[in-house]
Specification:
The protein has about 325 residues and is an alpha/beta fold. Helices cover about 40% and strands about 20% of the residues. It is built from 13 helices and eleven strands. The strands form two sheets. The protein has an eight-stranded mixed beta sheet. A three-stranded mixed beta sheet has the order 5-7-6. β3 and β4 form a beta hairpin. α11 runs antiparallel to α12 and α12 packs antiparallel against α13. It is globular and about 65 Å long. About 5% of the residues have low confidence.
């Protein structure tokens, strides 16, 4: 896989315009999925909570270029905005936690506000212009309640050519006035994307007084004793590549990103369409790789089915 990625990234179209990856809410680690293409890519990562984020501009961190910024990203730039530093850095947000709505949830202490600070906020498009970048290829955000409004503030010309977009919207009320999953999905239904992955995550519905009445082990491992209810969702989209303005470059990246996500069926289609549209021989090679990936997956599936049948025979 790395050999073909190296070959694709050395294509003229990607040499002059390398992949641009944006990570908003990069507290913890920058998106690990990007590792195979990092050395060819420009990464722009933001986090407003500097307690768990390195601030730097570098060319020696495994990336072609890395901008990691302690900046609050909002739909509009402003000189001063409230930012709520919560007990967990991963829950800090420009939106106030909905304390009342969070009360009956086991993870509510993570949202306890330690401090409210005033921070300047930047809008993503202005940052891109300042850096001298006019496009985004892979967009990933976990802004704790503002994913949709930040994305929607981008120019439509940038949005429609994004190849992959990852969001983490809420399902329950965790922040005041937050962007919810149902709003994001309704919005994305009108854009040239399809849902490639959805993983619902959550917490346990239990009042804090009742939680504290449990013994230490049950509190410590509450998820083993109490059902987890949906609270938020990690959802990923891939561009359908249906826009007529999509170039050979976007089709190549469409194949790479789809393959990295295990979407080999879509990767085959991207390679077939790319070969017809651009008469680029590389797409034929990509088509064969995707086809072989599906064949390998089929073999694994057959082995699993055979093993399952054997187990059933033994049990019967």
């Amino acid at each position: 896989m790395r050999l073909i990625i190296d070959k694709i990234m050395k294509h003229d179209a990607l040499q002059t315009n390398p992949p641009v990856l944006v990570d908003i809410g990069a507290s913890g680690t920058i998106h690990e999925t990007w590792e195979p293409i990092a050395k060819y890519a420009i990464c722009i990562a933001f986090d407003a909570d500097s307690r768990d984020f390195e601030i730097c501009e570098s060319e020696d961190k495994g990336w072609r270029k890395l901008y990691s910024m302690n900046r609050l990203v909002a739909s509009e730039a402003t000189e001063e905005m409230d930012f709520y530093l919560t007990h967990s850095p991963h829950c800090s947000s420009s939106l106030a936690p909905d304390k009342k709505a969070l009360e009956p949830w086991a993870f509510s202490p993570l949202f306890e506000v330690d401090k409210v600070v005033k921070l300047p906020a930047v809008d993503l498009h202005s940052v891109l212009e300042k850096i001298g970048i006019t496009y985004i290829d892979w967009y990933k955000t976990d802004s704790q309640g503002t994913d949709l409004r930040i994305f929607d503030a981008l120019p439509k010309s940038i949005i429609r050519k994004i190849i992959s977009a990852d969001f983490e919207p809420g399902i329950i009320d965790a922040y005041m006035g937050e962007d919810k999953l149902h709003q994001l999905m309704a919005y994305m239904d009108k854009q040239p994307f399809w849902v490639s992955h959805m993983e619902v995550k959550g917490s346990q519905r239990i009042d804090q007084d009742d939680l504290q009445n449990l013994n230490y082990l049950k509190r410590r491992f509450i998820s083993s004793f109490l059902k987890t209810a949906p609270g938020w969702c990690e959802i990923s989209y891939i561009n359908k590549l249906s826009d007529k303005e999509m170039s050979c470059r976007e089709y190549l990246l469409g194949w790479v990103f789809a393959t990295m996500k295990g979407e080999h069926g879509f990767a085959i289609q991207a390679a077939k369409d790319g070969a017809i549209k651009f008469e680029e021989p590389l797409f034929n090679e990509l088509h064969n790789i995707s086809h072989n990936s599906l064949s390998s997956a089929s073999g694994v599936f057959k082995v699993a089915v055979k093993a399952s049948k054997k187990v059933l025979r033994i049990l019967s």
